[in-house]
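hiii so um. not sure if this is the right channel but i have a protein structure encoded as tokens and i wanna go backwards to a sequence. like what aa goes where. can anyone help
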């Protein structure tokens, strides 16, 4: 089962808090996901450009770039714009949620993260990403036939 999950998902965990990154990595690795990590927004962009990832777990409050700014940069990049982003934050206000959704965030989780909810949201976004890829392959094949 762990091997199946590894094939299905590579997750980039972005948080300036090392303990938070390590906890998330331990939880997700325990479910068989392959995890990468970044300690800030700029590093997130560097890793995402260098390594293929399927989902980004992104903290909102970070010192170099906040999560909303990172989302803006991800959506500007042709290669990164389709990666699902799950925002993680200690702030549970409507304004932050709305800003995230306006920037194309897929999901929003409040810290401390509930383990079951985390797994459910990650699995959902991985499934959605795979469906998008299948649709792109089908469209490409149809284009070749025309």
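sure thing!! here u go:
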């Amino acid at each position: 089962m762990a091997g199946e999950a590894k094939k299905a998902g590579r997750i980039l965990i972005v948080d300036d808090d090392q303990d938070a990154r390590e906890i998330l990595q331990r939880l997700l690795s325990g479910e068989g996901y392959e995890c990468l990590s970044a300690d800030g927004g700029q590093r997130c962009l560097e890793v995402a450009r260098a390594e293929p990832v399927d989902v980004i777990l992104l903290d909102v409050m970070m010192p170099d770039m906040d999560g909303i700014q990172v989302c803006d940069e991800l959506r500007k990049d042709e290669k990164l714009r389709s990666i699902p982003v799950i925002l993680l934050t200690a702030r549970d206000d409507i304004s932050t949620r709305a800003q995230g959704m306006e920037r194309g965030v897929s999901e929003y989780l409040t810290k401390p993260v509930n383990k079951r909810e985390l797994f459910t949201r990650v699995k959902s976004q991985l499934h959605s990403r795979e469906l998008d890829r299948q649709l792109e392959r089908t469209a490409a094949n149809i284009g070749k036939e025309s």
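oh and Residues 48 and 61 are 19 Å apart (CA to CA).
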